[in-house]
Amino acid sequence: MATTTAAEPTRRDFIYIATGAAAAVGGALAAWPFIDQMNPSSAVLALASIEVDIASIQPGQSVTFKWRGHPLFVRRRTPKEIAEANGVALSDLKDPLARNANLAEDAPATDRNRSTKPEWLVLVGVCTHLGCTPTVSTPQVPQGEYGGWLCHCHGSQYDTAGRIRKGPAPENLAVPPYSFLSATRLKVG
Amino acid sequence: MSGPSTYVPKTAFSRWLDARLPIIRFANDTMLTFPTPRNLNFWYAFGAILTVFLGIQIVTGIVLAMHYVPNENLAFDSVESIMRDVNYGWLLRYMHANGASFFFLAVYVHMFRGLYYGSYKAPREVLWILGVVIYVLMMATAFLGYVLVWGQMSFWAATVITNLFSSLDQIVPHVGTAIATWLWGGFAVGDATLNRFFSLHYLLPFAIAAVVGLHIWALHVPGNNNPLGIDVKGPQDTLPFHPYYTAKDAFYVALFVVLYMAVVFYNPDLTGNPDNYIPANPVVTPPDIVPEWYLLPFYAMLRSVPQKLLGVLVLAGAIVTLFFVPWLDTSKVRSCRFRPQMKFFFWFFVVDCILLGYLGSQSVDAAWNLAGIDLPLVWVARFATAYYFGFFWVLLPLVGLFEKPKALPDSIAKSVLGNAQPMPAE
Hints:
By secondary structure, chain A is an alpha+beta fold.
């Protein structure tokens, strides 16, 4: 082929670039179904909310339900536990955000922002480190130093508002979207 | 390395085939007459051992898949059914589970061998990198397979490992969680996760086999390194692969398989965790979760860092570091036989890896009591992690610059045979 020094793009250049662009876009479009098939299916998304009866939960007791495949902690806190959680200065918290799906993303992690009704603490029971289920602390069998939860996998400790206080976990235990349908009935999701 | 082919087809059929598909010539040149250094020792048998174990895992795996059901409600029971009802199911499953352990035992010996004799140094860098690729694929495959049992350890191993990706939330918010959700096919590890893990667990061994093919190809271009670490200078330094090394490898393969079958028959749950005989429960984490023994050193490194993202980066860095080894070592001499300082640091590195493995198996808040003072194990793990990285990123470059190696022998033949005349190889 003869070499040309023409500065003008040729028809061949155009065909070359157009073909490459079409192949790249077409390749991406063809790949997407193969990637997206791994995301949650409609059936999984449809099971995203539950209703639970909390009438039998006693003060000081924490009960575990299952929501979206995760443990869901519903803890009826004692006045002492609420007072302990309120007594913590925001500056002492590792994660200053409430992580409450019912509030704005930048809401501060005060105890008030962690529970709609102070007596009831509703949390996703998934350690924000690597996803283990933390063990609840009771006055009889304390777990960790903060009276909330201790994750045995890698040693993260949470207080009585489910806020991370010590260990490798970066965030407070998540508060799921929930509402009280009545005094004894809770809807989560 | 192998030079011009010496194969001469002897029958009419082999002449006919050789002109169309020279597959017999290929097998002859790579497996029979391939010139191999005459001084390879015991530690060089592990390549053959690994090939055999890849075969054992694929064969036992294919038949286990005929009985296994990848469904969250049926998986655990189907494994128990394999153990109790399927003819010889117990044997096949124990061969497969322990086969993974022995596969890793062999690969660790093989990797330490490569480090000791400098087998990663030019011109074998690509050979080493392909080996690291195989190692990463092996870890992925072993993890996926471990999850399939769907016991408590399976479930929580899957949860913890997939959550490693959620640490990316600390770089770009929500991206890590989106990746984890994509991996799970749900909001947590569940049925969708189990199904895709089964699909990938079946696929990856064949990917490993393909990379093993490339690994052997890359080996056959420069030829084997050897315990002296010096180049082959001529035919007097080599022996044909068959029968010299086929026989030697076969002997050690047999010994290793005896050891393996002894565990399969007499202590098949040796490396298993009893908690994995409890069906998976998504709302209760066992009090102490530990990975299989072959991943413990990395687990210890992850736990030694008290920050989520940094911990994950250390874990990933420990593996990625291996890819850089050929360029981190500045020494002109390959074999540690002639490197007095590096030899010391190497053996300390072996001890360090074993120590990390031990630390990974202990509870997070455990401590050693030394003369009345409690030494938290997490601090021991921090020092051990520092040495792991220091060995590769500090010692390998620096020792190579300052160390005075011992004098190298003139040739492999002289070193092996003294001044005696080498016997002709046929």
